[in-house]
């Protein structure tokens, strides 16, 4: 029940952010002389079809997830000063956020246009340079993250008033304890790890 509450809260805040910023309109793409371009796979499907697949948990969800991963990979390759547009967001998180946007859009909105709203939110906070991936452990629990993301976590905690000497990305026991305190105070599961609900709360819930 707790995870459902956290996920619903995350989706609601994210959708509000998209529409307040006016980011739900289709994004601009490179195209031919007539403004047309080919769309493959899940990008052609409608929000109605995607939402139904998500709610029923059908095998098509994996196809939409694969489409997102391919789209992000292509954007990583072709955008200047870009290493990873989704440096901490999992595919599952991006699917949930796209579903939230689809719930606010017309049923016949194309999946590619719905995901454009998610993309526009992610892009400004993209990872612009390659960063090492390291493990973070707290007891038997473990996660992995880019060092640059851990630096951002430390800076966000400092902005919240926590005493962190340097945002080096070295996520030691002091950082874990302070993250657990932040999680507890914000109604999150106190894992001490930079998990999805925690990262969303730190970076998006302002």
From TrEMBL:
This is Peptidoglycan-binding protein. Residues 151-202 form the Peptidoglycan binding-like domain. The lineage of its organism: Bacteria, Pseudomonadati, Pseudomonadota, Alphaproteobacteria, Rhodobacterales. Gene3D superfamilies: PGBD-like superfamily/PGBD (1.10.101.10). It comes from the Bacteria. It comes from Pseudorhodobacter turbinis. Keywords: Signal. The keyword Cell membrane does not apply. Residues 1-30 form the signal peptide. It holds the Pfam family PG_binding_1.
């Amino acid at each position: 029940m707790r995870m459902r509450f956290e996920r619903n809260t995350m989706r609601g805040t994210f959708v509000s952010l998209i529409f307040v910023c006016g980011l739900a309109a289709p994004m601009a793409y490179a195209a031919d002389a007539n403004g047309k371009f080919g769309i493959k796979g899940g990008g052609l499907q409608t929000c109605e079809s995607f939402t139904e697949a998500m709610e029923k948990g059908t095998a098509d969800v994996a196809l939409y997830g694969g489409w997102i991963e391919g789209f992000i990979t292509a954007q990583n390759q072709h955008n200047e000063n870009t290493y990873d547009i989704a440096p901490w967001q999992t595919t599952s998180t991006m699917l949930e956020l796209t579903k939230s946007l689809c719930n606010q859009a017309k049923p016949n909105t194309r999946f590619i246009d719905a995901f454009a709203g998610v993309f526009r939110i992610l892009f400004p906070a993209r990872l612009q340079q390659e960063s090492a991936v390291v493990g973070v452990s707290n007891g038997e629990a473990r996660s992995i993250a880019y060092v640059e993301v851990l630096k951002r976590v430390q800076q966000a905690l400092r902005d919240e008033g926590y005493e962190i000497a340097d945002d080096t990305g070295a996520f030691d026991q002091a950082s874990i304890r302070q993250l657990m305190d932040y999680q507890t105070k914000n109604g999150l599961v106190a894992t001490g790890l930079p998990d999805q609900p925690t990262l969303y709360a730190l970076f998006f819930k302002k």
